Amino acid sequence: xxxxxxxxxxxxxxxxxxxxxxxxxxxxxxxxxxxxxxxxxxxxxxxxxxxxxxxxxxxxxxxxxxxxxxxxxxxxxxxxx
Length: 81
Description:
Strand content: 5-15%
Number of strands: 4
Structural class: alpha/beta
Shape: globular
């Protein structure tokens, strides 16, 4: 689970795991960054992408809609902006 995925490569803590075949979800709200994310992650068929702003009010529904299991193993959370 990568919230604030940027372009999926730069500043990414999850990219190495996705390269190894981990399933997951990458979320980015910025349109330009999401475009880069979608381009780079097209090779990862087990990684879902979402372009939206994540808030305390929508994070649970986002996880449910992406079929993220309740006990997922890794969360990268970038909320500085």
